[in-house]
Amino acid sequence: MVIININSIGGKEVLCLALLAVAAYQLCTIIYQLFLSPLSKIPGPWLTRITPLLEVNALKEQRRTRWVGSLFAENLGAIAVRTGPKAVSFNHPDAIKAIYGHGKGAEEFGKSSWYDAFSTTGESLFSTRSKKRHAMKRRMVAHGFSTQSLALFEPYIDQMLDKFMRKMDKFAQTGEAFDIYFWFELFTMDLMGDLALGDNFGVVETGKPARYSTLVELSQRFGNISGILPFGKSSVSILSWVPLPYVQKLWKARLEYLDYARMALEKRFQEDRKQVLPTGKPRQDIMQRFIEAQDPETGRKMDFPELRAETSSLMVAGASTGSVTMNWMTYYLCKNPTVKARIINDLEVMFPDNLDGTKAIPFTKLNKLSLLESAEIECLRLHPPIGYAMPRDTPSQGAVICGVFIPGGVAVGVPAATIGRNATVYKNPDNWDPDRWSDETADLATMKTCFLGFGFGTRQCIGRNVATQFIVKMIATLLLRYDMELEDPSLVLGTKEFTIQKPDQNYNVILRPRKAGRT
Ligand code: HEM
Questions:
Q1: ipTM score of the complex?
Q2: Which residues bind heme (predicted)?
């Protein structure tokens, strides 16, 4: 037996022993993760078993959604793939209900630490991980997104659409080819500024992008990277200390972007919030809804830092997601003239006194035009702006998802972009076919479950109706007002992933004033 005389051990030996113990622990952990963990049986590159680096790299190279898709393509028929030491993506309808559903079991899955990166001056409705706080927040603001509130937001949309269409008229008069997606970006930036920050940026008017758009994009990227780091709530601070110029650029953008919300809110409070609309009603935008929001149970209202976090989060949630969707609708309608003609015909029947699209189109009528909404859903199925899995943590005791046991504390999710093209759910999944959503022979219930464009379950998009409202109003007005075609009819548009998935190239459309009944 070896007897160690503790008194004879010096400082150096203690340090060596400690280092040896750490190294041995690390080695055992790596061996466990590589070969013994239940997760090691899930297909995926072996490196994902021990490091998140592959995912971070895919994120940095702006191809994270495609990378996850390629893992499923390499492992044909796999229900789940490994994307990191503690991250698994699923591609099965049952996984959606298990992970995001309202069921008893699913209630145990909470948003993962990725969301901490999106908490800024406070936790927002989107970023909070606490189910209790989320339920309270959602209760507080639910009224702000009701049908009644949608009607209050409509004058802002109509005003902005009017400004936008005046610019389009100029293009239509000359027939000059132009980049319509660029203009959609300006439109949603200004509109969301109006709705969430209480004022627009004037970018539709000037035709020049706002610095704020760049700030949103860069600070989203910062959030995304820190969300993957394994330091929980400290990830944001730790990343902000990394002295790499790229990281520092993102961090500064995040600070500047948050400052904007502070200034907008301060201005709103100073101005007594009584800006009056042309309709004579006091200003009633989303920001106002959040300012007035009150927990019906406790009477609690949001304080300034929380409001600041909410309003800046809304800009991220609603601006680019909306413009990207308008872009796909334009692209696919131009590529599918028969569907386009059917929608125009429906619009002409519905709005006989507005055949040239010069009057505002009321959403209360438009939302009955199911083909137009199916066209929007079909775009979001094929090109969800948020394509990768929205991560949820498995409960501490672990969970069996689609027959696969996942230990506790693992981030699981279903990528919208992958399940949206799952051939067992959608016939000819790569085809853009809005009629699939009214095909009574199809399993519509499963198709709807697998449509994750707006998320699923308790955390699904609260702004879905607002988004649909301004998107379909935009497209309906464009279709009534102009003949619209792609400059290059053979264009094949793909996606490039910034934080959200955007078109991979610039392209032009040509507008001409439309003669009614000529479709
Ligand atoms: C086409 C446009 C839009 C798309 C594709 C979209 C997509 C999504 C998705 C996928 C989620 C779920 C995220 C998750 O599970 O973590 C979400 C949540 C959310 N969205 Fe949207 N969104 C859009 C427009 C909007 C708009 C216009 C607003 C605000 C007016 C908005 C506000 C929110 C908020 C606050 C949440 C968090 C909800 C919660 O956790 O309770 N979104 N959105």
A1: 0.99
A2: 461
DSSP letter, residue 511 = E
Q: 29-36 long-range CB contacts below 8 Å, 24 or more apart?
A: 33/85
Confidence of residue 157 (pLDDT cuts 50, 70, 90): very high
For the annotated binding site for heme, the residues are 461
- List of domains in the chain: 68-78+118-380+418-513 (1.10.630.10)
**DSSP collapsed to 3 states, 275-298:** CECCCCCECCCHHHHHHHCECCCC
Q: How far is CA 377 from the centre of its chain?
A: 14
Question: Atom of ligand 1 at shortest distance to CA of 321?
Answer: 2
Residue 463 beta carbon below 6 angstroms from any ligand 1 atom: yes
CA dihedral 251, 257, 262, 268 (to 10 degrees): 180
List pLDDT tens digits, range 87-117. 999 999 999 999 998 755 556 799 998 898 8
Query: What is the position in ligand 1's atom list of the atom closest to the CA of 314?
Result: 29
354 or 119, greater pLDDT: 354
Q: How far apart are CA 21 and CA 275, in angstroms?
A: 66
Which residues lie below 8 Å from residue 375, measured CB to CB, with a gap of 6+? 329, 332, 333, 339, 343, 434, 475
